[in-house]
């Protein structure tokens, strides 16, 4: 099986638009049903051996403890409850509207009644999920390929995360922006502007150097690995990046370090190439924020100095 199969956005744009809305429906259920965590860590999805999971939600006597999984091998949406009950349905052939109604009927049958804001977030339209019959192309082959790419990227980001002993987020898949990321925190608290929205304020209340991967969108219609430092220090875009294919691009008033997926696919050692890129972008952010990168290094995930020398 190819490590990083081709994933041109144009080939699966319709399937992505449909599945992205499926993901936002489930993600909004996760948002209202999970315990609050710093920087919204309770919100994203996590890859599994068969797809994606919300991880357990609810419980504590307030509602049944349950989880929702996208099985992207069998292409079924699965709801499991702590008491052993389970229900599932096929995602093949579903429109956003039929998926929405089927899921909420399934949840109600299990005694689960979440209340969500049932419109898409930042997807170019505000058609309520319950009425969206336009987005109806769930392609099992393409969605399975997306999940296989996502799973390999998650492992790569996890390997990168192992080398940092400071506060680090989980590797997680954001259903609102449809990227996967891991974030390192410098420890500096940020004075977020008062006009910033509540989501942004919590996400960026501490200084971060983040790394991730996106599948492409209308603004940048190509998949790529990326990194950014926020707030962005002066001169970040002039810092060197590796390998030579990496570049800084302007993005909404700041800059992203980018290594395109197709360039990675052409490398003799794509894993080493991505890790080199992520480390170079991290070192750039660390230098300009004054982070002592060496003091927080734990190469290979080892912090014990005795074991590290063995």
Explain the overall architecture.
InterPro entries: DUF5996 (IPR046038). It holds the Pfam family DUF5996. It comes from Nonomuraea turkmeniaca. This is Ava_C0101 and related proteins. With 310 residues, this protein is α+β, with helices and mostly antiparallel strands. It folds into two domains: 9-131; 140-299, no CATH class. It has helices at 9-33, 96-109, 140-161, 198-203, 261-265, 270-289, 305-309; strands at 46-47, 51-53, 57-59, 63-71, 76-81, 86-90, 172-173, 179-189, 206-214, 224-230, 247-251, 254-260. The longest helix is centred in the first third of the chain and has 25 residues, at 9-33. The chain starts with 8 loop residues before the first helix and ends with a helix. The model has no long low-confidence stretch (mean pLDDT 93).
Short structural summary:
With 310 residues, this protein is an alpha+beta fold. It is built from seven helices and twelve strands.
SSE arrangement:
Layout: H1 9-33, E1 46-47, E2 51-53, E3 57-59, E4 63-71, E5 76-81, E6 86-90, H2 96-109, H3 140-161, E7 172-173, E8 179-189, H4 198-203, E9 206-214, E10 224-230, E11 247-251, E12 254-260, H5 261-265, H6 270-289, H7 305-309
Antiparallel strand pairs: 1-2, 2-4, 3-4, 4-5, 5-6, 7-8, 8-9, 9-10, 10-12, 11-12
Helix pairs in contact: 3-6
InterPro entries: DUF5996
Protein name: Ava_C0101 and related proteins
């Amino acid at each position: 099986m190819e490590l990083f199969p081709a994933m041109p956005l144009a080939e699966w744009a319709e399937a992505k638009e449909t599945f992205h809305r499926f993901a936002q429906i489930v993600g909004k259920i996760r948002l209202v049903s999970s315990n609050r965590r710093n920087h919204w860590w309770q919100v994203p999805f996590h890859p599994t051996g068969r797809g994606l999971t919300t991880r357990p939600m609810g419980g504590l006597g307030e509602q049944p403890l349950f989880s929702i999984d996208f099985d992207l091998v069998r292409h079924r949406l699965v709801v499991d409850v702590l008491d052993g009950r389970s229900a599932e349905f096929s995602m093949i052939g579903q429109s956003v509207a039929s998926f929405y109604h089927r899921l909420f009927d399934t949840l109600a049958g299990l005694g689960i009644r979440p209340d969500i804001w049932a419109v898409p977030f930042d997807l170019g339209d505000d058609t309520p999920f319950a009425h969206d019959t336009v987005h109806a192309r769930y392609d099992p082959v393409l969605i399975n390929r997306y999940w296989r790419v996502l799973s390999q990227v998650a492992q790569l980001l996890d390997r990168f995360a192992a080398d940092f002993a400071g506060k680090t987020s989980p590797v997680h898949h954001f259903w609102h922006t449809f990227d996967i990321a891991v974030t390192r925190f410098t420890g500096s608290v940020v004075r977020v502007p008062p006009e910033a929205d509540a989501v942004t304020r919590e996400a960026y209340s501490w200084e971060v150097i983040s790394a991730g991967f996106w599948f492409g969108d209308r603004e940048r219609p190509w998949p790529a690995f990326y990194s950014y430092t926020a707030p962005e220090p002066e001169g970040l875009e002039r810092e060197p990046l590796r390998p030579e294919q990496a570049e800084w691009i302007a993005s909404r008033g700041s800059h992203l370090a980018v290594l395109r997926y197709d360039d990675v696919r052409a490398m003799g050692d794509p894993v080493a190439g991505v890790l080199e890129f992520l480390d170079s972008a991290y070192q750039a952010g660390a230098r300009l924020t004054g982070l002592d990168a060496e003091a927080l290094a734990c190469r290979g995930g080892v912090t014990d100095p005795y074991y590290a020398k063995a």
